[in-house]
Each structure stands twice: as C-alpha cells, then as structure tokens.
Backbone:
C-alpha cells in the first residue's frame, strides 16, 4: 500500500517525532479511520525514504500515546476508539470558546503587576544572542573555572554519598556547607555570624525574594539606591511595596535622603551597582544609626566584593551592626558559575524562623549535590585559590579595558567603578542615541548594555553603558573597544 505523508518542515526535531506528528494529524483529520491497518514499517520507510528505525520509533510513540494498537502477527492498526474521543474533545473546546466560558483565570495582584510591565526585569538581556565580544556584566570567565577540581570532588561525593543526599535535606542548607561559608565570611568579609545564621539559597536573587516576603506588606516603603539593581527593585515592586529612589554620590547612598518611613533599605555598599562607588566607613555608621532610629531593616547585597584592586578592602556593613538590623546576602554565581545558582544570606537570629519558613515554602532546599561539593571545595582550599587567581585575571582585563578606552576615546569616555568588581560604568559623550549605538555595535559583533534602565530618576547627560570585562580576554577587549570607537565615530 502506497501512502503519502508529508513530514513537518522542522529539521531541528528528530525525523521520528515529525513522522509521528504527521500520522497523528492524519488520524485526527480522518484520513486514517478507526481500526484501519497502517503499512508495515519496512514498506512505509521505503515509501518515505526514511530509515526503518525511524518508522519503528514513530509507531512506538503513537502506540504509547494510544493512537495506534499493535496486533501480534497482524500488524499495526489505528486505535478503534481514539478518533471519536479526540473529535469530542475538540467539539467541547469549540463550544466553550463560543459560549464565552474560556476566559482566562483571574490573576492575583502580584501576577498583574508582573504582566502589566510594572516590574522591570533583565529577561530581555538574558535572551540576547551573544556577540563575538560580549561585555555583559556579572558573567565570570568560564575558561578559568577549575573544572578538574570540581569534577574530582563531585565524583568523591557520588562515590560515597552521605545519607542526607538521598532524601530531603535541611531547608537552611547542609550543615557542613553552612559552617564552611560562616568561616569564610568571618575571615574574608568580617561578617559576624555563626553557621546557624547562614541560609543557603538559589542565588542572591532568591535571598532578596525571601527577605522581601518576610519584611514587606503591600504599601510599605522600601528605599533603594538610584541608580540601582533592577532585580531588587523588581522584587520589592512585585510585593506591592512603594519603592522610593534615593540618590547616590561617590560614597554610595545619601543617608539624609532616605525617608523615615522606609521599612527596608536596600544597599550595595562594597561596590554600588552600577556606579561602583564604595561606601566609606563613616557613611556606613551613619546608615546603621539611621536604621536603628527609624526601625528599618537594611538588606546588604555584597554581590562581587571578592574582587578589589585598589585601596584596602572594607569589611561588610553587617560586621558593624550592633542592633541586628542587617540582612547580608551574597552569591557564588559571579565567583564560580551562574549555572550553579548558589548563594547565601546571613540574617539576625530574630528573623531566622520567618526566613527559613519562607525558604521552605518556596522550594524546600537548594540542590544537595552542589551543596556537598561546594562544602568540600571551600574546606579544601580550592575556593580561595580560585579567588586569588581570578583577581589577577580580572585586574589585568580591567587595566586592558581602561587603556583601550583611553586610547580610542580619550576624554570623551568617563569611567567609574574601577576600584573593584567585574564591570565599570562608562559614560560616552557625543552619542546622541544610545539604543541605536547599541544596535549598531551588536551588528558589528560587540555586545554592550545601556545603564539607563537602572535609573528611576534622570540619568546623566551622554550615553551610559554597563560594561563587564570579566568574560572577555585581553585581545577581545582591545578589539571590542576599537570597534566601538569606529561605531562612535572616533579615531585612535
């Protein structure tokens, strides 16, 4: 029996899936009737110029779905009752749509704020196709990740898995990881905590979400830096908070401008995002005094303080807190790999029960395998060796970036945030249309990102760009800045 079937034109999908879809549509469309025998696999394969295994897999999938039935010694047949059921379902769906009963479910206020565009996110940037020279901020150098050490430790954990890895784990995180993180934070960042205060989370974004859930009711005032991190702003707005932008200067957030009614104050004191300003010790004490006086809670986002190149490192704001008013959050996404989705938060003991409960409701706990491997990675010294190495790598790339801008742009490019971190803020004078500049640069193979969306108020004159240098090597940095200079119309 010759049979004509047209496979969907979708070469990205396996041929057996496309053949199964074509036969399924033929059954639902009435070309193949209930009980009708289909051609033998060898015959159909010859008719369609397909491998016989492709037809076998397609038949097997349709049998599993209930569209076909195999009779031993007789062949493969269309299931006797499926078409009627399918047509009945289509008829019911059509009636529901015609009668107006197919209206979408009512959304919560939280969901309405999300879909109405009231909550800014970076999803648009995350879906951008990478360019040849991608200056995306916050992306570590994948080539430098100590994959051999990570693989060895992972194998050790899997060869002799502890019992807690085989079931549900503690919401706060594996005890050995919390202890390792507490020791690391104490010696490297001056954080005052013990392991009981450490909560392991899926990146610092989840730490912000959990903190917001336990601190904010709709209508509460939250003070944030302006400019500031969009991910934090999005969390607070999604919770229904009244977000109040507070200006920043070269020492970080201006404390006198924080409204007294602010229930939460969100800051990035070690490397203000995105300007790179470092909050002075006196400004930190001033901020803590204000929080104590007004009863506010400070969320300290210490997202990339591991990388500091100039001046003495300042201890975490949390280490100066005497009144239990600071929640400290950090991430390993920028230090190791974003794909690991590992972060931590250190909260005052008074907030621990609520924060642990909110974390349990969100996702119970972070993946236990990664936690166990990371605990070994820290305890055996791999983590801090990796940090020391990456500081040198990033410092070289930072210097290369600054030299390239000086060579190709001169005084037209004002750069801030050079003391630490993995990005700088670049303001280029003479670029009248930042969006067009970005589009032309991407077409030329250079990925850059506007800083405009980080300002709730008016951005500075000129075109500002957030430029990460951590994932581009020195040659790529030089070439990328040279291309940007051509796009901007400057000459070396």
Residues:
């Amino acid at each position: 029996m010759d049979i004509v079937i047209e496979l969907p034109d979708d070469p990205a999908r396996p041929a057996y899936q496309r053949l199964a879809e074509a036969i399924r549509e033929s059954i639902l469309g009435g070309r193949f009737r209930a009980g009708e025998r289909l051609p033998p696999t060898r015959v159909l394969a010859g008719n369609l110029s397909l491998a016989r295994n492709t037809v076998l897999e397609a038949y097997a999938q349709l049998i599993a779905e209930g569209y076909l039935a195999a009779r031993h010694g007789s062949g493969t047949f269309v299931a006797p009752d499926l078409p009627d059921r399918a047509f009945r379902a289509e008829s019911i769906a059509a009636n529901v749509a015609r009668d107006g009963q197919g209206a979408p479910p009512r959304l919560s206020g939280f969901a309405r704020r999300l879909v109405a565009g009231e909550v800014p996110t970076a999803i648009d940037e995350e879906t951008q196709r990478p360019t040849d020279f991608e200056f995306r901020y916050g992306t570590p150098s994948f080539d430098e990740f100590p994959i051999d050490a990570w693989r060895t430790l992972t194998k050790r954990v899997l060869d002799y898995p502890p019992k807690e890895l085989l079931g549900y784990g503690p919401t706060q995180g594996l005890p050995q990881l919390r202890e390792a993180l507490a020791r690391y934070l104490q010696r490297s960042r001056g954080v005052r905590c013990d392991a009981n205060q450490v909560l392991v989370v899926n990146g610092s974004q989840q730490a912000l979400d959990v903190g917001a859930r336990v601190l904010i009711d709709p209508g509460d005032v939250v003070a944030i830096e302006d400019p500031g991190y969009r991910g934090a702003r999005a969390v607070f707005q999604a919770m229904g908070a009244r977000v109040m932008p507070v200006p920043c200067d070269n020492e970080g957030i201006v404390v006198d401008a924080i409204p007294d009614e602010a229930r939460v104050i969100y800051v990035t004191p070690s490397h203000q995002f995105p300007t790179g300003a470092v909050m002075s010790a006196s400004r930190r004490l001033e901020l803590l005094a204000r929080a104590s006086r007004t009863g506010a809670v400070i969320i300290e986002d210490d997202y990339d303080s591991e990388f500091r190149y100039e001046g003495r490192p300042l201890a975490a704001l949390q280490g100066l807190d005497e009144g239990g008013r600071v929640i400290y959050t950090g991430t390993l996404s920028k230090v190791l790999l974003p794909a690991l989705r590992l972060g931590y938060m250190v909260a005052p003991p008074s907030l621990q029960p609520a924060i642990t409960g909110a974390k349990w409701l969100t996702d119970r706990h972070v993946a236990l395998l990664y936690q166990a491997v990371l605990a070994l990675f820290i305890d055996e010294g791999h983590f801090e060796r990796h940090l020391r190495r990456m500081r040198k790598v990033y410092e070289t790339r930072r210097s290369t970036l600054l030299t390239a801008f000086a060579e190709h742009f001169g005084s037209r490019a004002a750069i801030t945030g050079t003391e630490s971190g993995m990005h700088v803020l670049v303001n280029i004078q003479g670029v009248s249309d930042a969006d067009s500049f970005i589009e032309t640069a991407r077409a030329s193979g250079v990925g850059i990102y506007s800083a405009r969306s980080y300002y709730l108020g008016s951005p500075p004159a000129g075109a500002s760009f957030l430029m990460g240098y951590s994932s581009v090597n020195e040659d790529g940095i030089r070439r990328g800045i040279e291309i940007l200079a051509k796009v901007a119309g400057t000459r070396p």
